[in-house]
């Protein structure tokens, strides 16, 4: 059976995911699109044989022609569309963040539990990255013993002028928040944010770089650098220090060059290319799971946990204090 997917939001990542669903992946077809930018939606639909444009995301979700929904509209719109999909009993893949506040994520969690069905997956694609999976297996197999510390970095060459300080947490570090918790299977209890001297390449509304310090329930300490004007490339680093050894996230594949008296490898510039395979694996997995009414990837509870953590990081960043991370107790539904 082909999963008939409707996509809400045909911006940058919406177009990327549509291309994946329509051309690269198996088992799904894009039958519907919606966007507040109706012209763009028409343009995208014109390239998809048989796809319909819906005037609103709600109308798309309600259509009997749509089996499952992908939400790739801007963050503040996610809650409405995810709740509509749950109400309609349709599987929904929602790009990160699940919603922009912890309260909104909790409403989604409660609605999903009330529906009695596992319907929501969040777009934390790093859980599908080959390197992260290999790192997790090394940890899970006990190769480095119990994790004690994690040092990591999320560096972008540049960001647009509209990118401001809070986005370093809610748009960027949110990926580390989810990936590290999954990597070591441990929840966070507190957050602190340090602000080194700003780079000359930033602007008045963006503190760059920052260092986020997280502590977990079992006592693991994490330091995460977010540096979004690092200039030299898109660089995701992660080193887990354990009792018996140290495990490091593999570098993306790159030809090793000996030339002009130098030994070098390329550093990627574009995050879309760094995680291109993970997005493919993530959506292929979502298609298969949606067909059997399951969610294998990051779920609504993970989206909620990430939002509570991001809120604490923001509080810590604004006050300079250590912010506790306090969540509801995980419902048995997400065990
Ligand atoms: P974008 O601005 O390029 O696209 C957003 C689209 O949503 C636009 O076409 C806009 O017109 C549309 N839109 C806005 N409000 C709408 C509404 N109410 N109903 C329907 N459509 C609406 O943004 P983007 O970069 O594509 O990001 C979209 C989402 O994907 C964000 O939540 C972002 O954080 C996430 N994202 C995730 C990753 C990742 O690595 N997982 C990467 C980039 C973006
Ligand atoms: C962007 O919003 C993303 O989600 C990318 O995955 C991330 O790595 C990039 O740094 C963010 O700005």
What labels would you give this structure?
335 residues, alpha/beta, Rossmann fold, Dihydrodipicolinate Reductase, domain 2, seven-stranded mixed β-sheet, six-stranded parallel β-sheet, 37% helix, 23% strand, globular, binds nicotinamide-adenine-dinucleotide, binds (2R,3S,4s,5R,6S)-2,3,4,5,6-pentahydroxycyclohexanone
Write the layout of secondary structure elements.
Elements: E1 3-8, H1 12-24, E2 28-34, H2 38-46, E3 52-53, H3 57-62, E4 68-71, H4 78-88, E5 92-95, H5 102-115, E6 120-123, H6 130-140, E7 147-155, H7 165-184, E8 188-194, E9 210-216, E10 221-227, E11 235-242, E12 246-248, E13 257-259, E14 262-264, H8 271-274, H9 276-291, H10 300-319, E15 323-324
Parallel strand pairs: 1-2, 1-4, 2-3, 4-5, 5-6, 7-10
Antiparallel strand pairs: 7-11, 8-9, 8-15, 9-10, 11-12, 13-14
The structure holds nicotinamide-adenine-dinucleotide (NAD) and (2R,3S,4s,5R,6S)-2,3,4,5,6-pentahydroxycyclohexanone.
What does this structure look like?
The chain has helices at 12-24, 38-46, 57-62, 78-88, 102-115, 130-140, 165-184, 271-274, 276-291, 300-319; strands spanning 3-8, 28-34, 52-53, 68-71, 92-95, 120-123, 147-155, 188-194, 210-216, 221-227, 235-242, 246-248, 257-259, 262-264, 323-324. The protein is an alpha/beta fold and 335 residues long. It folds into two domains: 3-126 and 277-300, 3-Layer(aba) Sandwich (Rossmann fold), CATH 3.40.50.720; 130-269, 2-Layer Sandwich (Dihydrodipicolinate Reductase, domain 2), CATH 3.30.360.10. The strands form three sheets. Strands 12-11-7-10-9-8-15 form a seven-stranded mixed β-sheet, covered by helices on one side. Helix 4 (78-88) runs parallel beside helix 5 and helix 7 (165-184) crosses helix 10 (300-319). The protein starts with a strand and ends in an 11-residue tail after the last strand. The mean pLDDT is 98. Bound molecules: nicotinamide-adenine-dinucleotide and (2R,3S,4s,5R,6S)-2,3,4,5,6-pentahydroxycyclohexanone. Residues 156, 171-172, 175, 271 line the site of (2R,3S,4s,5R,6S)-2,3,4,5,6-pentahydroxycyclohexanone.
């Amino acid at each position: 059976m082909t999963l008939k997917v409707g996509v809400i939001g045909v911006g940058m990542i919406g177009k990327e995911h549509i291309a994946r669903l329509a051309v690269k992946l198996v088992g799904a077809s894009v039958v519907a699109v919606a966007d507040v930018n109706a012209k763009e939606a028409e343009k995208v639909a014109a390239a998809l044989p048989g796809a319909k444009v819906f005037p609103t995301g709600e109308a798309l979700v309600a259509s009997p022609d749509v089996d499952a929904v992908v939400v790739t509209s801007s963050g503040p719109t996610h809650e409405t569309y995810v709740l509509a999909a749950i109400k309609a009993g349709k599987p929904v893949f929602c790009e990160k963040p699940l919603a922009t506040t912890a309260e909104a994520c909790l409403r989604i969690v409660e609605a999903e539990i009330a529906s009695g069905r596992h319907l929501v997956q969040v777009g934390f694609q790093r859980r599908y990255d080959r390197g992260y999976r290999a790192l997790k297996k090394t940890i899970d197999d006990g190769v480095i013993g119990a994790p004690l510390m994690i040092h990591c970095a999320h560096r972008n060459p540049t960001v647009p002028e509209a990118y401001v300080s809070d986005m370093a947490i809610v748009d960027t570090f949110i990926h580390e928040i989810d990936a590290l918790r999954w990597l070591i299977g441990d929840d966070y209890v507190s957050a602190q944010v340090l602000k080194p001297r700003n780079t000359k390449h930033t602007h008045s509304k963006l503190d760059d770089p920052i260092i986020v310090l997280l502590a977990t329930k079992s006592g693991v300490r994490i330091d995460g650098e977010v540096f979004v004007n690092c200039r030299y490339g898109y660089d995701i680093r992660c080193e887990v220090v354990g009792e018996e050894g140290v495990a490091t996230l593999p570098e993306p594949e790159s030809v090793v060059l000996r030339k002009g008296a130098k030994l070098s490898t390329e550093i990627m510039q574009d995050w879309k290319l760094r995680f291109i395979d993970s997005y493919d694996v993530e959506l292929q997995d979502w298609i298969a799971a949606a067909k059997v009414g399951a969610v294998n990837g990051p779920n609504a509870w993970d989206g909620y946990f990430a939002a509570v953590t991001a809120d604490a990081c923001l509080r810590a960043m604004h006050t300079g204090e250590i912010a506790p991370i306090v969540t509801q107790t995980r419902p048995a539904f997400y065990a």
